[in-house]
């Protein structure tokens, strides 16, 4: 029987003394953890490293060098380009708006995602709802910008946002049908405080004529009827208010009710004595009205409310609301992203903890606030930080949605980088903005990576 030599296997010669072999090597040649030779692994990684260098490392390095050069590129500017970040009005506005974006957009999107994830957890159609909410993520920023440019259009006939606002407003506040109406030539009315008043006092038993012009026939109220001259009534003030205009040259008489002329239905008439309204009435479909004897000796007034311009909605893309309006479009796109991630975290919460809280007497709000949200805190932090990184780079939505008149008010750093580099031909300042954005993103990105690693260890 043959004995194996010390330190070897039977039939295998022992390695020479003094030679060493490392684990995972054959004959001293080192391999990677997967068993692949290091040179082969490097060759496979080389194309990715070349692309990474060409598309990431080189642009970052070039931008850093360019940020210290003059705009012409021929001289050293020192920190002048960086000083412009805090002295240029456009950049300061962009920086202020970026702060608003970073605070508001991730917070609202994460909060909505949390609400959607919790509310849809127990309903059968929750999956369909999540699909609908997540669907805007499939739309490009450019397309979303065009959509919301139309949504925020000032004209209620085009913009759905103002169509809703105007519809709600007109439900509770009656709008005027005669915003353009005004007295014509030789009229008994004179202007007063946005309305019109008769030159002289009126007397009972004598019909009053209140002719107006300025309302196009095609925008007259649908219930307007042919105007009728009011009949005198004993002890009362009667009269007619109508559109004193007949198509055709030389047709009809000025100041008199003609056969084709229409009354002003709903026109409010007030009798004013010593600055006080003593009686009032509304004109019928044919323009006629009647006031009591209290109006005898008063002057008749058509108040300004008869001629108020119709409510045209909110100026969503004006200087004061343009940034919140664009943030709303961003939330519409990214709330679905937050919802999906939070729903995944919610699925990993042990149900025993929730049931134990309910058994202890906690209501649903207390369970949500004291159990669900604390357990979801790591996921909420990752979602919020990811959205912060994304928000710092926002460009497309602001560029497309904000009109030229208010783009300065909606400006953000990424848009200002584009404007400085291409519109104003200041590449040095543009490079400084790019480096500044990178410095803002790196800490947030590192924090997010750290949280993700902590989650992976759990």
Comma- or semicolon-separated keywords:
47% helix; 2 domains; alpha+beta; 8 strands; 458 residues; 12 helices; disordered N terminus; MetI-like fold; 3-stranded mixed sheet; elongated
Number of strands: 8
Proportion of beta-strand residues: 5-15%
CATH architecture of the largest domain: Orthogonal Bundle
Radius of gyration, taken over Cα atoms and rounded to an integer in Å: 38 Å
> Share of helix among residues?
40-55%
If you average the pLDDT, what whole number results?
Answer: 86
Structural class: alpha+beta
Indicate the low-confidence ranges by residue numbers: 1-12
Order of helices and strands: HHHHHHEEEEEEEEHHHHHH
- When the domains are counted, the total is 2
Give the number of helices. 12
Assembly status: single chain
User: Could you give me the name of the CATH homologous superfamily of the largest domain?
Assistant: MetI-like
General shape: elongated
Question: How would you sum up this structure, described in words?
Answer:
The chain is α+β, with helices and mostly antiparallel strands. It has two domains: 80-162 and 316-457, Orthogonal Bundle (MetI-like fold); 189-307, no CATH class. It contains twelve helices and eight strands. It has helices spanning 38-66, 80-87, 89-119, 126-134, 141-151, 160-172, 322-347, 351-359, 364-392, 396-401, 413-423, 427-457, and strands spanning 189-192, 195-198, 208-212, 237-243, 268-273, 276-282, 288-291, 299-302. The strands form two sheets. A five-stranded antiparallel beta sheet has the order 1-2-8-5-6, with no helix packed on it. A hairpin with a 2-residue loop joins strand 1 and strand 2. Helix 3 runs parallel beside helix 7 and helix 7 (322-347) packs across helix 9. Residues 1-12 have low confidence and may be disordered.
